[in-house]
Recover the amino acids of this structure.
């Protein structure tokens, strides 16, 4: 009778498959990056209109968008040193200095969230990565050997060291003042526009090579060539937030490492302290077992805190700058017009 009961009993219920609650992170990240990229495209369009009217003979009805200064990191670095030495905020490109400070503070608090969630170059690199995965690497991206990756990674730190030496070490206050007020600096945004409008064959070839390289190596420019990212990476050493792995629950599937856009071996580390970590949380979203990966300063917190703090720092700095008058340039319209008309003749 007992055998009949056993045979006729309902089969035991299958254990429900665990569903990662953070699988939506990449989609949200796409949304944030896409919105910021669309905003910058609008900024570029507005600046193009302003520049076209400024160099013309007619009246200027378009407004110069301050956010165009996000593309002027050298001017921002000069402005940062000038501010630290004198206490005066850059009156020529104040928005550029605001954005640089926001990115550094964001890195100090939440790793390189600017790179992973805001930077338009990072967004484009991610798009190329997606394209490469669809066209070439459906099964698995090739891994760059460490003996090659490390020396190439040092390039961006060497570039950062050069700019730090030339600006932070070599330029006294008088030289900083002279550079900030020079036609070259006033017209820096116009020169950037002219660079892309009249792209040389050499520049076009370099950009094409970077795109092709990024189809083979994930985030090649961000990984090897960006001095801005190198600066934020150094600042991120002091961030209290980091990716942590629970070695007791980890099943060593390697999904987190494969998802990392800079090939950090997350599955082999208890904590991710690398300056290359962009705080994108792709590894957390790729987790296959509960409680394996998370974000922690001292104890586990929600991973959503990291991008919230990083992106929030940008918004707070922008809001304070707008409210206090440190967002819009003090350069008069006529000074911009003179500098923009001189821009094609000003050398680098």
């Amino acid at each position: 009778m007992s055998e009949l009961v056993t045979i006729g009993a309902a089969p035991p219920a299958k254990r429900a498959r665990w569903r990662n609650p953070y699988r939506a992170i990449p989609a949200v990240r796409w949304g944030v990056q896409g919105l910021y990229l669309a905003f910058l495209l609008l900024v570029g369009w507005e600046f193009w209109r302003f520049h076209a009217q400024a160099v013309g003979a007619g009246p200027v009805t378009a407004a110069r968008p301050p956010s165009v200064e996000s593309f002027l990191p050298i001017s921002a670095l000069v402005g940062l040193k000038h501010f630290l030495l004198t206490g005066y905020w850059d009156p020529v490109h104040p928005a550029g200095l605001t954005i640089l400070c926001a990115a550094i503070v964001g890195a100090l608090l939440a790793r390189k969230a600017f790179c992973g969630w805001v930077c338009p170059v990072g967004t484009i690199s991610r798009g190329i990565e997606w394209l490469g995965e669809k066209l070439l690497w459906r099964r698995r991206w090739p891994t760059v050997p460490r003996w090659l990756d490390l020396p190439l990674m040092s390039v961006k730190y060497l570039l950062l060291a050069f700019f730090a030496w030339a600006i932070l070490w070599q330029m006294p206050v008088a030289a900083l003042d002279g550079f900030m007020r020079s036609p070259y600096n006033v017209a820096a945004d116009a020169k950037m526009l002219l660079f892309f409008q009249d792209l040389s064959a050499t520049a076009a070839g370099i950009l094409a090579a970077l795109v092709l390289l990024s189809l083979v190596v994930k985030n090649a420019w961000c990984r090897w060539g960006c001095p801005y990212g190198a600066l934020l990476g150094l600042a991120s050493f002091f961030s209290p937030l980091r990716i942590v792995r629970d070695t007791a629950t980890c099943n060593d599937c390697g999904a987190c490492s494969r998802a990392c856009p800079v090939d950090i071996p997350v599955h082999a580390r208890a904590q991710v302290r690398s300056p290359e970590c962009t705080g994108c949380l792709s590894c957390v979203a790729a987790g296959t077992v509960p409680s394996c990966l998370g974000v922690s300063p001292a104890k586990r917190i929600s991973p959503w805190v990291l991008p919230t703090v990083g992106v929030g720092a940008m918004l707070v700095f922008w809001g304070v700058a707008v409210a206090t008058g440190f967002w819009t340039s003090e350069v008069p319209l006529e000074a911009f017009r003179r500098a923009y008309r001189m821009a094609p003749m000003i050398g680098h």
In short: The longest strand covers residues 242-245. Residues 1-15 have pLDDT under 50 and may be disordered. The two ends are 94 Å apart (CA to CA).
